From TrEMBL, chain A:
Pfam families assigned to the protein according to its UniProt record, in alphabetical order: DHOase (PF12890)
Family the entry assigns: Belongs to the metallo-dependent hydrolases superfamily. DHOase family. Class I DHOase subfamily.
Protein name: Dihydroorotase
Chain residues that bind Zn(2+) 1: 64, 66, 156, 309
Binding residues for Zn(2+) 2: 156, 183, 236
Cofactors that this protein relies on: Zn(2+)
InterPro entries found in the cross-reference section: DHOase, DHOase/Allantoinase_Hydrolase, DHOase_cat, Dihydroorotase_CS, Metal-dep_hydrolase_composite, Metal_Hydrolase
Protein encoded by which gene: pyrC
TrEMBL record, chain B:
Family: Belongs to the aspartate/ornithine carbamoyltransferase superfamily. ATCase family.
Cellular compartments per GO CC: cytosol
NCBIfam families from the UniProt entry: asp_carb_tr, PRK00856.1
Binding residues for L-aspartate: 86, 169, 223
Top enzyme category: transferase
Database matches in HAMAP family: Asp_carb_tr
One Pfam family in the UniProt entry: OTCace
Protein name: Aspartate carbamoyltransferase
Upper taxonomic lineage: Bacteria, Pseudomonadati, Thermodesulfobacteriota, Desulfobacteria, Desulfobacterales
Cited InterPro entries: Asp/Orn_carbamoyltranf_P-bd (IPR006132), Asp/Orn_carbamoylTrfase (IPR006130), Asp/Orn_carbamoylTrfase_sf (IPR036901), Asp_carbamoyltransf (IPR002082), Asp_carbamoyltransf_Asp/Orn-bd (IPR006131)
Protein's organism: Desulfotignum phosphitoxidans DSM 13687
Aspartate/ornithine carbamoyltransferase carbamoyl-P binding domain mapped to chain residues: 6-149
Length: 428, 312
């Protein structure tokens, strides 16, 4: 089976930009053709897709999502998460290990990959736990998990509190050439906080979490990256101090990368009103100054990646007193439209956005997702023009916990192709 | 003027005219408490649920006495005796309460915003009797009532507030209320007890206890929460009392006709010395007396309609 996608602007930063046709043979890209090239002939085993008006980009990757399976299938399953990812334009996601049981051994990794294969949505790259049970005391069998298919390790959801264990984990992972995803949070500074420390928290009487709770751990792990030479990737960076530290570390040649999430460049703690727990996430929505620093960090390249930190929770876990409600929001189906606002507001070029949502995530995971012959046909098609309103009732994710309901957006995922098959969109 | 609000959730959402109406109404109610028969039929047939999910003695009793003086039927439920102890959520508990058709739910809860969440779900009136560290509107209103009664007005007064501002719902409600009514509010505490951006509520932060109480017309002392000592907010009660305790030397720095207040319960010898607490400037017990009248006024305004309190 061969497929020809024609009419789209093909944008693969550093590789291709122009109106090209992509010829796909089975699961792989066979050729990238100019409109003037002689097109292959039609046939019974040949399909032509007219993608005029769309932008075709390398498969978008969300390197920070929670799929909740095994253990919390009432919030999300690998199948619903992979479908939500595909609907959001993602061809691949990294599944964080804080499931029940924790993905800290190759059996759980194999289970996740088996479920993902059956799901037929976006690809799932499991992330293994750094320590057994993510308890922060004993290293997991990282190499065994790597052989089973993990692409990174993280104790996400909580920090590796003990600096010595973190040092050893980094040394070990350096030897395996696997990145360590860091949830940077000093729990003693969080101290029961539920939103950003600042005037809105003071006014509403919600215990605050200072920026330093994130930044002191970023500082520690930059130093440990320097000590060990390991690749540290900071998850969900939210505040100015962390971005300043990472910028400086990069200038010094330390092997650090980082991500932020759409809510940190879209909302601030001033948006947390009426004790609505859909505005409760960890790290919390920060001040306007931090939001601007996140945008600046994205623009100047300090922030490599936009990831959603998709954290589905059931209604029961959110429909509670603010301090008792769960942290986290869903993001797979809103990440691309919210990120496109950065382009509409001239903070990023479209090319730069694709770097942060497709190319850099792949690079961090050691995956080549160039649009080039021989690579798997993992492609995202984006409609930049379609205007709409974010409507959680239409999410294919099992959960609806988003603060963006009713927000007007422009642009969306039009179609998503994994291994040569459309898993979402008009032609799916 | 008619009071049109369904709920009393915080001070922020009341405008000065509404606050004045509440205080005026409370003064009328106070007279009822001074009669030999301290009961009027105003809220006869109304049901008031006292839903206290956090320990409270004086506030709960004050709301209960207020309800009885207006002839309302009051029922109290506590956390230990409610289905909350069996794991039922707040929303479920409250929907069940509402199904029994109360007219007013008075609510105390350890989580900030809990009264908001409930008020948005139920059709009956909700009075917030303290939510987390967010608001305690009836306390702030009775404090304003007491000051107005003593000083004649609130406008132009200097209010000094000393103590754990960060963890005090009384502090937040008092700062907002008194500044809204034209007082100048100055707060003072160890830096560990001053929350980020407190000035935005309408106060200034004094550099020292002496600067805070200088020329003050009203000194409001807040309780040191001994259970928070583990949070390393201050090294010892001894050191705290030395720096931030109210004693007669510090009272002497204030306006000669100063009024001393405390929402209670007091830690004698820590934030306030006994001679000051029991001294001639203290109106700590008047606050308690006024509390009943003020809460009667709140019931009347949210549940009694426009009728006069003493008719029917």
């Amino acid at each position: 089976m061969r497929t020809l996608i024609k009419g789209a602007r093909v944008l693969d930063p550093g590789n291709v930009d122009g109106y090209k046709s992509i010829l796909i043979n089975g699961q792989t890209i066979e050729a990238v053709l100019d409109p003037a090239d002689v097109m292959p002939e039609n046939g019974t085993d040949f399909k032509v897709i007219d993608a005029t008006g769309l932008v075709l980009v390398p498969g978008l990757m969300d390197i920070h999502v929670h799929l909740r399976e095994p253990g919390h299938e009432y919030k999300e399953t690998i199948a619903t998460g992979a479908a939500a990812a595909a609907r959001g334009g993602f061809t691949a996601v990294c599944a964080m290990p804080n499931t029940r049981p924790v993905n800290d051994n190759s059996q759980v990794t194999a289970f996740i990959l088996g479920k993902a294969k059956a799901a037929k949505g976006a690809r799932v790259y499991p992330v293994g736990a750094v320590t057994k049970g993510s308890a922060g005391t004993q290293l997991s069998e990282i190499q065994d998990m790597q052989q089973a298919g993990i692409k990174a390790v993280s104790d996400d959801g909580r920090p590796v509190e003990n600096a010595q264990i973190m040092r050893r984990a980094l040394e070990y992972c350096r030897g395996l050439s696997i990145p360590v995803f860091v949830h940077a949070e000093d729990l003693s500074l969080v101290n029961g906080g539920a939103m950003n420390e600042g005037p809105p928290a003071t006014f509403q009487g919600i215990p605050g979490i200072p920026n330093a709770a994130e930044a002191v751990m970023v500082a520690r792990d930059i130093l440990l990256s320097r000590l060990t030479g390991a690749h540290v990737h900071f998850c969900h960076i939210s505040c100015e101090e962390s971005i300043d530290l990472i910028r400086k570390a990069k200038h010094q040649g330390i092997r650090v990368t980082c991500e932020t999430a759409p809510h940190y460049f879209t909302l601030t703690d001033a948006d947390v009103k009426g004790y609505d727990a859909c505005f409760k996430m960890n790290p919390p929505l920060r001040s306007e100054k931090d939001r601007q620093a996140v945008i600046q960090g994205l623009a100047d390249g300090t922030i490599d990646v936009i990831a959603s930190d998709h954290a589905p929770h059931s209604k029961e876990e959110k429909d509670l007193e603010f301090d008792r409600a769960a942290f986290g929001i869903v993001g797979l189906e809103t990440s691309l439209p919210l990120s496109l606002k950065l382009v509409q507001n001239n903070h990023l070029t479209l090319e730069n956005l694709i770097l942060k949502m497709a190319k850099n995530p792949a690079k961090i995971l050691g995956i080549n997702n160039d649009i080039t012959p021989g690579n798997p046909a993992d492609l995202s098609l984006i409609d930049l023009k379609e205007k709409g309103v974010i409507d959680p009732s239409r999410f294919v994710s099992k959960s609806r916990n988003t603060p963006f309901a009713g927000m007007t957006v422009q642009g969306r995922a039009a179609a998503t192709m994994v291994d040569g098959n459309f898993v979402f969109g008009l032609w799916a | 003027m008619r009071f049109t609000k369904k709920d009393i959730l915080d001070i922020h959402s009341l405008d000065p005219a509404e606050i004045t109406l509440i205080l005026d109404t409370a003064m009328g109610m106070k007279e009822i408490s001074q009669r030999p028969v301290k009961k009027v039929p105003t809220l006869r047939g109304k049901t008031i649920v006292l839903f206290f999910q956090e320990p409270s003695t004086r506030t709960k009793l004050s709301f209960e006495i207020a309800a009885k003086r207006l002839s309302a039927d009051s029922v109290a439920i506590a956390k230990s005796g409610s289905s909350m102890a069996k794991g039922e959520t707040l929303m479920d508990t409250v929907k069940n309460l509402e199904a029994m058709k109360p007219d007013v739910i008075v609510m105390r809860h350890a989580s900030s915003g809990a009264a908001y969440l409930v008020a948005n779900r139920v059709n009956c009136s909700v009075i917030n009797a303290g939510d987390g560290i967010h608001a305690h509107p009836s306390q702030a209103l009775l404090d304003m009532m007491s000051v107005r009664e003593k000083k004649g007005c609130i406008k132009g007064l200097k209010l000094a507030m000393i103590g754990d501002i960060a963890h005090s719902r009384v502090a937040r409600s008092d700062i907002i209320g008194f500044s809204k009514m034209g007082a100048r509010v100055s707060v003072c505490a160890p830096q560990t007890m001053i929350p980020a951006g407190i000035e935005a509520l309408g106060c200034t932060v004094a550099s020292s206890m002496e600067a805070c109480v200088a020329d003050a017309d009203v000194i409001m002392m807040l309780r040191i929460q001994k259970e928070r000592m583990t949070d390393v907010l201050f090294p010892s009660e001894r050191e705290y009392a030395g720096r931030f305790g109210l004693n007669s030397q510090r009272v002497a720095l204030a306006h000669k006709d100063v009024t001393i207040m405390h929402p209670g319960p007091m830690n004698r010898g820590v934030e306030i010395s006994s001679d000051v607490a029991d001294g001639k400037y203290s109106m700590i017990l008047d606050q308690v007396t006024n509390g009943v009248a003020l809460r009667m006024a709140l019931y009347y305004l949210v549940a009694g309609g426009s009728r006069h309190a003493d008719t029917d």
